[in-house]
Amino acid sequence: MGKAERAELDTTADDDVLVALLAAGLRLQSTDTLWRVSGNTLPHRALLRDTGGTWNKLDQCWEFSGENPTAKLAAALDAQPVAAAGHNSGLAEATPHYHGHRARVRERVLKAGIESLADYELLELILFYAIERIDTKPLAKKLIERFGTLGDIFAAEAAQLREFEIDQRTLVLFRSLHESGRLLAERKVKDMPVLTNWQSLLDYCHAALAHEKTEQFRILFLDRKNVLIAEEVQQRGTIDHTPVYPREVIKRALELGAAALILVHNHPSGDPKPSRDDIEMTKEIRKAAEALGIAIHDHLVIGRKGHASFRSLGLLT
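Request: output the structure for the sequence above.
Response:
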């Protein structure tokens, strides 16, 4: 905010006003002409918008220009409905419709398992641990509607998620879940004969590549017992093309002493149907590999809509 920034609201502000903001989880900082509200803003976004705030996606805060908005914010917070303190309270009961909902969802999971949840309900449950004290179901439904699947949400770009006021804490949670899924899938294919563990291999390839925004060409190097020696990214490309050089593929296979290969690449478009270039490139690699006694077991194309297998499609005969 520059040299004029004050780390906290100046000490001349009324203590009760400051307490009201802090109790709501809000922090206020200012320059000479701009006021910024950060902290636990999501539960109060309607209030912040109605009192003249503008959401800053880049800095993840609400901005107010002009006069100090502190008193106005505190008054709006004070005017919000509160739950009745008891039967003798003079206030009308205003318990939120989602009161106790989180406990009910957790109890349902413990009794019936995660499998009983729809995708938006699972996302809602995940959001419980990143966003406090609000109904997360509307946000979960909006994210599913926008991105389609949980995998697409967890792999989405930060800029896309900020459109939904996703804060850094939630973004880190999404990234962690995405990487955890990949690592769990990877563990199932390491040190095992992949041809007899084919579904686990497909699950791993999907976890690693289905939500990538650009093409990657990966190679799985196998020994004579078809146990995975190594898995490497050979090339990275653009949204619809990856340059692959058969000579480099075979050179690396010889360096690792591989007896067989499984080729894998993704289609960021989501459609796993092999292109003509995919088919021609595979023919060149297979020809060079077989001349040196290296087998090509398959070439898998991974998309969000599924996968395509060259062997199953008869493209390796």
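The longest strand covers residues 228-236.
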